[in-house]
């Protein structure tokens, strides 16, 4: 059986334990790495080559970095192979995937409760699926009555959160337990303008990836980016706890892995 959730094995999400949270993350193969595009805005936003998919252990290769059958260069390691396998599972047997996801979330909640931590779930660790539109079967096999729950959020009274580049998601009535932060990119003027327009009508926050820590720190010290108040997005991953006292936030992140070499406009430099 393909295990789906990664529980606090991420250097950033584990920081949340100091604030009383345990985080489960679903990592899929981003963009078209598996043959199914789970990041529909990746080309327009220019983020697919600088994706954090290859940061950390995901970027370590036991051999040379290889071009996979779908035209994406990936390190040859077990992490990437597992992400591709999960994504194919999602594409090929959606109902079974969602039932297993539900089962693993239930087990994770119990694990967090035993540790006396608050469980939170991030489903788009390295993808941008609109989970609010993915139904979950009401049963399995002979016990299935042909019905569906609206989405995974309807089944669990815990906090879910994600980063997204799909601005139209903010026009919907999202589940109360699902928090989204919009990811900025200047790779195209159309995408950048969409970000600013979305913040204006929805009040969401923006994540902004900076080339290096020094540039990020300079903006943190100044307290502003493009008129938005700045906060350090690397301090923890708990975006639903970001407090702005009514002012929209630019959540600053340092580029990691191949993103440090990004030239698309996704990663920002100080002028």
Task: Explain what this protein looks like in three dimensions.
With 271 residues, this protein is an alpha/beta fold. The protein has one domain (5-261). Helices cover 24% and strands 19% of the residues. It is built from five helices and 13 strands. It has helices at residues 42-45, 78-92, 94-114, 189-202, 213-222, and strands at 5-7, 21-26, 66-67, 73-74, 118-122, 136-137, 148-149, 159-164, 178-183, 206-210, 224-225, 228-232, 249-254. The chain has a nine-stranded mixed β-sheet, with helices on one face. Strands 3-4 form a two-stranded antiparallel sheet. α2 packs across α3 (94-114). The longest helix has 21 residues, at 94-114. It is globular. The model has no long low-confidence stretch (mean pLDDT 88).
Number of strands: 13
- End-to-end Cα distance, whole Å, is 49 Å
- The share of residues in extended strands comes to 15-25%
| Residue-averaged pLDDT | 88
Number of helices: 5
Which residue ranges are poorly predicted, with pLDDT under 50 across at least 5 consecutive positions? none
Strand order of the largest sheet: 1-2-5-8-9-10-13-12-11
Order of helices and strands: EEHEEHHEEEEEHEHEEE
SS content category = alpha/beta
- How many strands, what sense, and barrel or not for the largest sheet? 9 strands, mixed
Number of structurally distinct domains? 1
Report the helical percentage.
10-25%
Query: What is the overall shape?
Result: globular
